[in-house]
Design brief:
alpha+beta, five-stranded antiparallel beta sheet
Length: 222
C-alpha cells in the first residue's frame, strides 16, 4: 500500500547522513519521552497512555449494582514503557518544525521502506519481535473521547498522544520486546485528579542499521 512521505529532522548533519548512508535508526524507549522535561516539544509524561476523562466525571458500574460517578476521575491504560522502542518522524516538511527539531531533514518517500527492512531482522533468538513492527500516524486524542477497544491494544496505545502535541503531525515506527504487543498487555488505573508522573530508570536507545537509503531519500537543509 502506498503511503505519503515522512520526514526525519536532525540537529546534526552527521546524524542525517548516517540515516542516508547506513540506514541508521536510533530508537528510543517510550520511557525516554515520558522522562524528558515536559517542554511541549519532545517530553510527554503521558506518551503511550490512553486517558478517558469524560466531562461530568467517570461513571463506574460496581459489582454490587451501584453506579458511582468520580468527579475529575479518569481511566488510564498504559503500555510497558521500557519495552517498546519508537522512531519518531513527521508527516510534514516544515520550516517551523525544523526550528524545533533540527535544520537537517531527511525525506523518506514511503515508510514501508523502513518497515520492510526492520521485518527482515526477524529472528527467534532476538529479544525484539521485528515481525510485529507497528507504524502509523499518531492519533491525537481529547481525554473526553471514549476509548473503545483501543485500551487493550499496545499497538494502538503507542500511537496515541494528547491533542497538545497535534502540531507535530507525527508518524511513528515502533518495535517491542517479545510479547509486549500482546492484547491486554497493558497497565490499567483509575485516578482522581492529576497523578504525579512515575519516573523509572530509562533503558538506552537501540541503534539499528538497515543498509544504505541513498537511492530512496532526499536531504533538505533549512
Amino acid at each position: 500500500m502506498h503511503r505519503m512521505a515522512i520526514y526525519k529532522y536532525f540537529t546534526e548533519e552527521a546524524h542525517a547522513l548516517a540515516l542516508i548512508n547506513k540506514g541508521e535508526l536510533m530508537m528510543q524507549p517510550l520511557s525516554h519521552f515520558r522522562g524528558r522535561e515536559a517542554d511541549g516539544v519532545r517530553g510527554d509524561p503521558r506518551d503511550g497512555i490512553l486517558t478517558y476523562a469524560p466531562q461530568g466525571g467517570l461513571v463506574m458500574n460496581m459489582a454490587d449494582g451501584r453506579v458511582i460517578t468520580l468527579e475529575g476521575g479518569s481511566f488510564n491504560s498504559s503500555v510497558n514503557q521500557n519495552d517498546i522502542f519508537v522512531y519518531c518522524v513527521s508527516n510534514q516538511l516544515s520550516g517551523e518544525l525544523a526550528k524545533k527539531f533540527g535544520a537537517f531533514c531527511v525525506e523518506i518517500p514511503d515508510p514501508d521502506i523502513l518497515v520492510r527492512r526492520l521485518k527482515l531482522r526477524a529472528d527467534r533468538t532476538s529479544q525484539f519481535d521485528y515481525e510485529q513492527v507497528v507504524c502509523g500516524p499518531v492519533d491525537y486524542r481529547e481525554h473526553s473521547r471514549e476509548p473503545g477497544a483501543d485500551w487493550a491494544l499496545p499497538e494502538r496505545l503507542v500511537l496515541i498522544k494528547p491533542v497538545d502535541f497535534q502540531w507535530q503531525d507525527e508518524f511513528r515506527i515502533a518495535v517491542g520486546k517479545r510479547d509486549t504487543m500482546n492484547v491486554e498487555n497493558v497497565g490499567l488505573t483509575i485516578q482522581t485528579g492529576e497523578a504525579a508522573p512515575v519516573f523509572e530508570p530509562v533503558p538506552p536507545p537501540i541503534f539499528l542499521r538497515l543498509n544504505s537509503l541513498v537511492d530512496h531519500v532526499t536531504l533538505h537543509r533549512f
